[in-house]
Amino acid sequence: MEVKVRDVSFSYDDKLIIDNFSCEFKSNKISAFVGGNGSGKSTLLKLIDGLLVPINGYVKLGSVNFSVNNSYPCRGKVGFLFQFVDRQIFNKSVYDEIKVGYKGLDFDKRVIDVINMVGLNESFLYKDPYKISSSERRRLGLACVLIHDPDVVILDEPFIGLDSRGKNDFLRLIKVLKKDFGKTIIVVSQDVDFLHKFVDYVYLIKDGSIFLEGDKYDVFSNELAMKSCGLKVPDVLHFSNLVLENKNVKIGYRDEINDLIKDVYRYVK
């Protein structure tokens, strides 16, 4: 599902947070909002999900508009995994947590499908959610989102609280959701070292407006723009920039440091 945000504004207590904001997200693509604390990223996610209502402008999900003048039209088409997933969990078993709000008749089959989709298995269904690892609990949160088969999946800081292995596991899961299940994915994260490995398009946000947008390499490699928004350039891209600046050698940009090392070795050789 394609998502379009057009001329959207939003304020908290008469303080304008989002001002005349427009952007769009292509079907079956992974896009990211990045920016410093208080830049408006999470507010934008809530506007897209319908948790907040814009004071002007509209959000278009597929062919249907949502604005201040009409009710949210696509409930269930957008799934939201919140930053602190523990705050979304209330039941004493994984099974009971996933079934919340699901209306389908094929519930047991659907539960098994989504638990497998997020890389867990049926042995988890009757476990206590608070006795599984933080990485597994985040996967449970995503399963609770996917049970409704949303076309658009929103992920707010999905790597918080995960160690390096947990981050890589969740990164692979995000790629699978795009490639194998055709989901349109919108991510907010300040962990640019992981973001640049899988996103397609980036919106760099500052003070509720787009400071820079474009292909991930164009945005993430822009040292001045990233710094002005309180962010660092991903390490692998920073290294490429240093080689170009100090040695006048353009070795290109890669997602993984190991691939970059291979490129450097080929050049030296």
Q: What's this model, at a glance?
A:
The protein is of the alpha/beta class.
Explained architecture:
A 6-stranded mixed beta sheet has the order 6-7-8-3-9-10, with helices on both faces. With 269 residues, the protein is of the alpha/beta class. It has helices at 41-49, 94-99, 107-117, 134-146, 164-179, 192-195, 216-220, 223-228, 235-247, 257-268, and strands at residues 3-12, 15-25, 30-34, 56-61, 64-67, 78-81, 152-156, 184-188, 201-206, 209-215. α3 packs across α4. It has 10 helices and 10 strands.
The arrangement of helices and strands along the chain is EEEHEEEHHHEHEHEEHHHH
- On the 0 to 100 scale, the average pLDDT is 85
Strand content: 15-25%
Helical fraction equals 25-40%
Note the total helix count. 10
Structural class: alpha/beta
Indicate the radius of gyration in whole angstroms. Answer: 20 Å
Uncertain stretches: none
Write down how many β-strands occur, each being a DSSP E stretch of 2 or more residues. Answer: 10
Largest sheet: 6 strands, mixed
- Biggest sheet strand order reads 6-7-8-3-9-10
Bulk shape: globular
Keywords:
269 residues; alpha/beta; six-stranded mixed sheet; 10 helices; 10 strands; 35% helix
Helix and strand topology:
Blueprint: E1 3-12, E2 15-25, E3 30-34, H1 41-49, E4 56-61, E5 64-67, E6 78-81, H2 94-99, H3 107-117, H4 134-146, E7 152-156, H5 164-179, E8 184-188, H6 192-195, E9 201-206, E10 209-215, H7 216-220, H8 223-228, H9 235-247, H10 257-268
Helix pairs in contact: 3-4
